[in-house]
């Protein structure tokens, strides 16, 4: 009887399959690695010695807004912010009561953004500085 000879040919089909999977994976991941999100970060520079005027917006738990201690509605806030924006040395600070509705906070923030205010700070977030600390 005749014994079969061992096959000397190499089966490269699995190798080609693996290479195709690697190529497809590479093609799909390259755009994700090169995608950029443009963010304008402050450049630092020299500190200014000019005196800055600080205005403060307060939003209480009832949803009432006050600018520098004077109660104001959203339309009045927009008009006053337009006057405030004209001065380049003005800073605006926004303080919100923790019990205030987010919807009212969002409306107020939208008015500030539409007014073109660029120097805005949030007051009262210091308590979240060490968020992982046990109280």
Which percent range fits the helix content? Answer: 25-40%
Radius of gyration: 30 Å
Number of strands: 5
* Shape field: elongated
Strand content: 15-25%
Which strand order do you get reading across the main beta sheet? 3-2-1-4-5
CATH fold assignment of the domain at 53-124 = Nucleotidyltransferase, domain 5
CATH architectural name of the domain at 53-124? 2-Layer Sandwich
Q: Assign the structural class, choosing from mainly alpha, mainly beta, alpha/beta, alpha+beta, or little secondary structure.
A: alpha/beta
CATH class identity of the domain at 53-124? Alpha Beta
Distance between the termini: 87 Å
Tally the helices: 3
User: Poorly predicted ranges (pLDDT <50, ≥5 residues)?
Assistant: none
SSE order: HEEEHEHE
Query: Taking all residues together, what is the mean pLDDT?
Result: 81
Question: What does the main sheet amount to?
Answer: 5 strands, mixed
